[in-house]
Amino acid sequence: MNHLGKTKTISICFLLVFCVTVPLAAVGQQVNDSVTSLSLRQCINYALQHQPALQQSMIRTEITKASNAISQSGWYPQVGLTANLNHYLQRPTALSNINGVETPIQTSVVNTSTPGIGVTQNIFNPSLIYATRLAPLNTKAAQQSVDSSKIDLVANVSITFYGLLLTLQQIDVLKEDTARLGESMRTAYHQYVGGIVDETDYEQAQITLNTSLGQLVQAIENVRPQYAALKQFMGYPQEQQFNVTYDSTAMLKDIDIDISEPLQYEKRIELKQLTVQKAMQHELTRYYEKTAIFPSLSAFFNYNAAFQNNNFDKLYNAAYPNSMIGLTLSLPLFTGFNRIQNAHRSRLQEQVLDWSETNLRSTIYSQYATALASYKSNVYNMRQLKENVALAKRVYFVVDLQYKQGIVPYLNVITAESNLRTSQLTYLNALFQTLSSKIDWQKAMGDITY
């Protein structure tokens, strides 16, 4: 390959680096002032207001309240109107004893109409008493479902946000890497032209640069689906754009947690939900064992305005009203052991929930132990890798200087640069793992706030 061909190759490589790296400034951060910039807290707040699944959960709370009102509506007076209009084609006949002779006599009139109003008021009703006791538990369970959705949402948004930041940081590392490799390749070329080194140094530099460019393009493409995933968790319109902002110093400070804090099972939303579920099941057992044995008592009032006439056009000329008040008592005496078996089944279901609590506590502790161990190991690993980055930068600086002075071969430069890139990317992965394990620990402890 002649010098002119090599010069064109270098120009093309630098043009490629420029085309790939310059637009990256607009990826994710502080370039276009017209695009909204959101921090993690802002992303979470937006998600709490717009995430579809969470909004559905909140609507279900209102549905539960409406259902409670429906189940307790029987305590209010029940008022109903009735009306009928009858015309006999053949009037009914009754036998009457007239002078010792059974004589058929037509009864009633041809046309009758009876509008009426009826009012019923429950005084004591076992089913309504059970519904009244259950209503606040239903509301509490619905609210806990919303709280559970919020906890999961905060965790998912946080982890996705950190994953996006990881990719953006990787892009910055790879941008620096391609810039270093571009400079290194140009140095190798000039030394080759000057007869200091042979052609292989320049070719090795170009191979390494091409590899780094491939990784950079791949990282750029990974940004788009990660933004899409974050928007999905937030309920953010996919067609709109926003940048993510963060304070790296504050983020590193937030990594530290108090690992001496004891595990408090009662803070976990799952245990709170199970406690309410057990209370609801206990109310059902109480209903079958104690409440359902009582009778139902209700009062009623009926008023009927009876209209009767053989001539239809005179039907509503006169009314013959009647009204009545009274009490209704209902007490099932035998239902085929239905109540007894229902009570037995409900007690068994309470035992199932007791065992569920035992299993849940064991699961919570396992999650806590796993999250704590993962966090501690990730923190240690992150700190060691951060030290490796500083060492790798120092080694690369020295080796690159030695190569320019002709002391070491170019292979040393490639190795040092590769170690630097690897240490930087590995550190970023460790940082992401640490942040993710912190979220897992907070979730296991029941400490996620929203």
Describe the structure.
The chain has 450 residues and is α+β, with helices and mostly antiparallel strands. The chain is built from nine helices and ten strands. The protein has helices at 3-21, 40-50, 52-71, 126-193, 199-234, 248-254, 269-291, 338-404, 410-445, and strands at residues 36-38, 78-82, 85-87, 93-98, 101-106, 111-113, 116-124, 242-244, 296-309, 319-330. Strands 2, 3, 6, 7, 9 and 10 form a six-stranded antiparallel β-sheet that branches. A hairpin with a 2-residue loop joins β4 (93-98) and β5. The radius of gyration is 40 Å and the shape is elongated.
What is the topology?
Layout: H1 3-21, E1 36-38, H2 40-50, H3 52-71, E2 78-82, E3 85-87, E4 93-98, E5 101-106, E6 111-113, E7 116-124, H4 126-193, H5 199-234, E8 242-244, H6 248-254, H7 269-291, E9 296-309, E10 319-330, H8 338-404, H9 410-445
Parallel strand pairs: 1-8
Antiparallel strand pairs: 2-7, 3-6, 4-5, 6-9, 7-9, 9-10
Helix pairs in contact: 1-4, 1-5, 2-4, 3-4, 4-5, 4-7, 4-9, 7-8, 8-9
Quick overview:
This protein has about 450 residues and is an alpha+beta fold.
| Average pLDDT | 88
* Shape, principal axes of CA atoms: elongated
Q: In sequence order, what are the helices and strands, one letter per element?
A: HEHHEEEEEEHHEHHEEHH
What structural category do the secondary elements indicate? Answer: alpha+beta
Rounded to an integer in angstroms, the radius of gyration calculated over CA atoms is 40 Å
| Beta fraction | 5-15%
Helix content: 55-70%
The tally of strands reads 10
The stretches of 5 or more residues where confidence is low (pLDDT under 50) are 1-32
Q: Please give the largest β-sheet.
A: 6 strands, antiparallel
Separation of the first and last Cα atoms: 64 Å
Count up the helices.
9
Quaternary? single chain
